[in-house]
């Protein structure tokens, strides 16, 4: 889908704020944006929108391509295509196609960001061979800085005879030349985004689980809080403080510059990011999150198991290695309570003893509703049936198993200290069958919203009234919920 009229209109409006003297020149374009025809289509007459890339290096020079057809040296550019979501993306595509420079070799300028540096209006002669009458181009020119100075310029040989870098005062276009000479553009790479590396002083770092939706930065990943600089921000520290307040209602007393990192934006460009470090010791569950899914503390030891960009993991490791000795530990040491036995008696070890399979189950209740998952139709156990979030222990304690399964199956983060035993179900499916012990734990608090993480096992999560459970539901799950509601700790099923 090509760029929308509203997108183009916003760019023109912002441009005219900088260049009010060009209002009369662009009046036909403003009028065309109210018409029904696509303003970016080359068939729209008497004029349509095109895009160009003004690539500036650190010697204050601009990239030009020598076109065979016209004999002119021009900035890379051309018509908007169907897959271009924005005019800036069209300019990036053109410079990649015409000069061989990928978006990752470029970044936006601090002065102009995603706004056009210049909008040039020029007439195009008729082309009988293309069947095109004389018409007009409204060329949106976007400024970029060259990030990768080792990138090779590779013009298309069938269309271009070469490429060169021209100083500002030698640029052929009078309007572009005048704006470049008067500008402060110098090709320096400056951060436009700011992020917060927040730690608790005890080896844990605060991460933000982003929404898993297309068109955003790092969808569905754990990342640092932060965002892009806005016009009202007096500094990048002001940017990161505003983002913390807007996204999570979070105020960190002291934020200090820690590092400058390079990320990849949704358009493929390099995005320099100023990272600020600060300490905060609060509970993420008490914050009001307005963007993304959840906030949670993680130790460095846990982070390699998360969906996390390698650059963010490397950044955290660098901070941990440079911090105070107590922060250099690879993980926070958590002293976990040993589960209290239900009975003081030890299991018998006589000849009549048989192994029992132990499964752990998560009981979450919210406003009188209990969390249950609908099992996949092909699941080996309880296909197409509602059941607790559950799993079997590996070489780990039952509480550790519960915490692990909650994160793996539903993206929920649970502190072991918030877990309590609420029910036991001892059952057997048939006479002589394998006995099972279902251990049901309640989490008093948790972080996150249940999401389907293992679609081959569970197709959905839902909150159901404890007194009106869905159908069908695993029988011992129903029995356990009824027992919990009645205040009973223990249930037996299938024994005769």
Characterization of the model:
With 496 residues, the protein is an alpha+beta fold. It folds into 3 domains: 5-182, Nucleoside Triphosphate Pyrophosphohydrolase (Alpha-Beta Complex); 193-327, Nucleoside Triphosphate Pyrophosphohydrolase; 357-493, Nucleoside Triphosphate Pyrophosphohydrolase (Alpha-Beta Complex). The chain is built from 8 helices and 24 strands. Strands 1, 4, 5, 6 and 7 form a 5-stranded mixed β-sheet that branches. Strands 20-16-22-21-24 form a 5-stranded mixed β-sheet, with helices on both faces. It starts with a helix and ends with a strand.
Gap from first CA to last CA? 67 Å
Q: From the 3D structure, determine the CATH topology of the largest domain.
A: Nucleoside Triphosphate Pyrophosphohydrolase
The helix tally amounts to 8
In the CATH scheme, the class of the largest domain would be Alpha Beta
Beta strand count: 24
- Net shape: elongated
């Amino acid at each position: 889908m090509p760029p929308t009229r509203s997108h183009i209109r916003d760019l023109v409006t912002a441009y005219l704020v900088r260049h009010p003297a060009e209002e009369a020149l662009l009046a036909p374009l403003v009028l065309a944006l109210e018409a029904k025809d696509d303003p970016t289509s080359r068939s729209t007459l008497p004029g349509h929108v095109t895009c160009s890339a003004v690539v500036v290096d650190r010697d204050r020079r601009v990239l030009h391509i020598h076109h065979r057809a016209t004999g002119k040296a021009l900035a890379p550019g051309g018509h908007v295509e169907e897959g271009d979501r924005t005019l800036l993306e069209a300019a990036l595509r053109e410079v990649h196609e015409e000069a061989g420079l990928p978006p990752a070799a470029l970044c936006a300028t601090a002065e102009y960001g995603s706004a056009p540096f210049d909008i040039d209006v020029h007439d195009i002669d008729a082309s009988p061979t293309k069947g095109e009458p004389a018409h007009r181009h409204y060329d949106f020119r976007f400024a970029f800085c060259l990030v990768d100075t080792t990138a090779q310029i590779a013009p298309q040989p069938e269309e271009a005879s070469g490429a060169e870098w021209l100083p500002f005062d030698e640029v052929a276009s009078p309007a572009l030349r005048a704006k470049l000479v008067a500008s402060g553009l110098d090709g320096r790479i400056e951060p436009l985004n700011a992020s917060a590396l927040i730690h608790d002083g005890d080896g844990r770092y605060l991460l933000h689980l982003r929404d898993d939706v297309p068109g955003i930065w790092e969808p569905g990943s754990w990342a640092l809080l932060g965002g892009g600089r806005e016009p009202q921000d007096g500094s990048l520290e002001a940017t990161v403080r505003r983002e913390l307040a807007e996204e999570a209602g979070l105020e960190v007393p002291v934020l200090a510059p820690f590092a400058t990192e390079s990320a990849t934006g949704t358009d493929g460009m390099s995005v320099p990011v100023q990272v600020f470090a600060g300490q905060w010791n609060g509970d993420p569950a008490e914050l009001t999150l307005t963007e993304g899914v959840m906030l949670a503390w993680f130790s460095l030891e846990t982070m390699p198991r998360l969906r996390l960009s390698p650059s963010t993991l490397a950044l955290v490791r660098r901070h941990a290695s440079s911090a105070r000795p107590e922060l250099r530990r690879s993980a926070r040491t958590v002293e976990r309570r040993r589960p209290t036995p239900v009975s003081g008696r030890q299991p018998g070890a006589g000849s009549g003893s048989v192994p029992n399979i132990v499964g752990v189950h998560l009981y979450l209740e919210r406003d009188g509703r209990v969390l249950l998952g609908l099992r996949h139709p092909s699941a080996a156990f309880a296909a197409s049936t509602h059941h607790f979030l559950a799993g079997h222990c590996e070489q780990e304690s039952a509480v550790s198993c519960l915490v692990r399964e909650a994160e793996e199956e539903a993206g929920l983060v649970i502190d072991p200290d918030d877990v309590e035993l609420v029910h036991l179900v001892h059952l057997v499916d048939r006479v002589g069958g394998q006995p099972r012990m279902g251990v049901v734990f309640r989490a008093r608090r948790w972080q996150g919203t249940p999401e389907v993480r293992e679609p081959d096992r569970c197709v959905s999560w839902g909150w159901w009234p404890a007194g009106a459970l869905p159908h069908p539901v695993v029988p011992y799950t129903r029995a356990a919920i009824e027992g919990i509601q009645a205040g009973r700790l223990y249930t037996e099923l299938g024994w005769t």
